[in-house]
Design brief:
17% of the residues lie in helices and 47% in strands. With 349 residues, the chain is α+β, with helices and mostly antiparallel strands. It has three domains: 97 residues, RNA Polymerase Alpha Subunit, Chain A, domain 2; 89 residues, RNA Polymerase Alpha Subunit, Chain A, domain 2 (Beta Complex); 90 residues, RNA Polymerase Alpha Subunit, Chain A, domain 2, CATH 2.170.120.30.
Length: 349
């Protein structure tokens, strides 16, 4: 009985104490909650990041074009101040998934944000994107093979030019929306540097895809560059014609005029030719007597050049006989006749 009375008194006292200054207690509790909320609110800050958007295409359709030309979205992040400084764009995987669509058309696809595992451990993390959806036109997937076009950079050595370029493989597979694929005629390679080369070169490079709506087969390409020497011409003027093979009994009087010629060959070879390597000759071995003769001009050229033009093919050669000089005989004085002496012949008695 006593315990029951004590319990009743205790409950009664508790109610009396609880109700004593009850409005003030309610106000204090509300102020406490407000202060707690304001404190937590003061510790929360936000940050805006620009994150690229990927398109997941694991179904029968592919994105034709981005109607709103959206390549990235803004991701708003709200969390405690001490966490914000360490949050980067790489902490989010942002994408739209069109894999579930089975027909062509234009649709609104929600933007999906996947935070990294480290962000998921943070308290009070809130993320959202602007815009929250992207409108895309989709078409059935389509592929075909197009040419691989080599991209050369730089200038080869002086005196050489590119004669041919080959690529292996010569074709590559591209896929995407038919309206996009049909506009592609070739795919370029990475730059092939040919600066200063003077012999054939071979390089392995990758393909360049600048269209995000187009998928290009990822395969290395071997580019072979072949060179040849640049060909040009060079003129030689007023070449003196020389005679050869003239008989010893004849001598050259004159040769009518000089010869102008033009020769062709590689630019580097022509630059090295001196005038002494170009000879114009007339063969006089057929001349047997004095006179004037029309004889062909024979050119002596280096083996690495070819004759393009010649101002004259014959010249007039005038020869004469070398005069024979007979030396005159010296005068010899006549011998004197002996003087006969008168010798007396003794008489014979």
């Amino acid at each position: 009985m006593m315990r029951k009375e004590m319990t009743l008194m205790t409950s009664k006292q508790f109610r009396e104490r609880f109700m004593t200054d009850f409005p003030a207690k309610v106000i204090c509790l509300a102020l406490t909650l407000l202060i707690y909320w304001l404190y937590n609110f003061s510790q929360i800050d936000k940050k805006t990041l620009t994150v690229p958007v990927q398109v997941i295409e694991n179904g029968a359709v592919t994105a034709e074009t981005d109607v709103n030309h959206v390549r990235a979205v803004k991701v708003f992040v709200k969390t405690r101040q001490e966490y914000l400084s360490g949050i980067k764009e790489d902490d989010f995987n942002v994408y739209v998934d069109i894999s579930a669509v089975g027909k062509e058309g234009t649709f609104d696809f929600p933007v999906i944000i996947e935070p990294s595992n480290s962000l998921l451990l943070m308290d009070s993390l809130e993320v959202r994107s602007v815009p929250e959806s992207i409108k895309l036109s989709v078409e059935k997937k389509y592929f075909r093979y197009v040419d691989v076009e080599p991209s050369l950079a730089g200038t080869q050595a002086r005196g050489y030019r590119v004669s041919a370029v080959t690529v292996e493989p010569p074709f590559v597979r591209v896929s995407g929306a038919k309206s996009v694929v049909d506009q592609v005629s070739s795919i370029l390679t990475d730059a092939v540097d040919i600066s200063g080369i003077s012999r054939p070169a071979e390089m392995t490079v990758h393909l360049v895809n600048e269209n995000s709506l187009l998928k290009v087969e990822d395969t290395p390409v071997t580019v072979k560059v072949f060179l040849e020497q640049v060909q040009s011409t060079r003129d030689f003027t007023n070449l003196k014609v020389t005679a050869s093979g003239l008989k010893s009994s004849l001598e050259l009087v004159s040769i009518s005029g000089n010869v102008d010629i033009s020769v062709s060959g590689s630019t580097l070879s022509l630059e090295k030719i001196s005038d002494s390597q170009i000879l114009a000759i007339v063969d006089c071995s057929s001349i047997g007597s004095p006179g004037t003769y029309d004889l062909p001009v024979v050119l002596s050229l280096p083996s690495w050049v070819s004759l393009v033009s010649q101002s004259r093919s014959t010249v007039q050669v005038n020869v004469r006989e070398i005069p024979v000089v007979i030396p005159s005989e010296p005068l010899v004085p006549a011998e004197e006749s002996p003087v006969e002496e008168n010798v007396e012949t003794p008489e014979v008695q």
